[in-house]
Sequence to fold (261 residues):
Amino acid sequence: MAIRKSVIQFEGKLEGFNSFLPKGRDEADGYIVRKNGGPSRKQIEKLPSCERVRRNNKDFGTCSSAAKALRMAISPVTHLADVNLAAQFTSLCRHLLSQDHDHTPGSRTVSFAAFGHQLSGCNLNRRYLFDSVVRHPLSVTLDRNAARATIAVPVLQPGVNLVLPWQPPLYRLIFSLGEVGDISEKGFSGNWRPPVSFVSPWYPVQQKVEESTVTLQSDHGPIGEKECWVVAAGLEMGTIVTDAIVTKVKHTGCGKILLVG
Fold:
């Protein structure tokens, strides 16, 4: 792999080389340049010497499926991320996968039920973290059996515990409650149940907002021992179109996974 910083500018495939700019990477840091090559797909599937590659591919597929399930569980706030969530969550799921000592490589499981709590507090942004915008911890109470999450939102005082680095005149809060189950080599089936969410009214950026309590109640009922709930929060900015219409502003806002349990 090489990093291109020269005057030669191209993106895509050219004479056996592939040049691309990963999401979240500045052009000043250079494009990634890779040479196409390696064994063919059939060789990887059949050659005894590629057994380890096959096991690694299965583990990577498991992590990718787990990352997708996690993204679906917090789908109401994923649009607020400024990083590649697929890559970030796959890396986090790889960490969970490595803690499965009951199975051999290639057949390991991403166990959210056992290790998912380690994802609590995961921010979805690199530039402006949720904790640097809402500078007061949000208290979360989770009742697994009742399928309910209660979030205590403190008084939001602009310039004190609410620091908005964006220019739009309005903001609002988003909370979600979703579920995710253990993922094995069989992958993510896609039969997921949409998370429940709450979206606050639009607030002027200079207005003090009194404390409140948000309750998210899922109608899916209790979940199994190999499943867990994921509570996420987000803040997005809005601008006034007409007296009756407010639209959200793209590429602004932030999000966070509050609790997994």
Q: What stands out?
A: The chain has five helices and 13 strands.
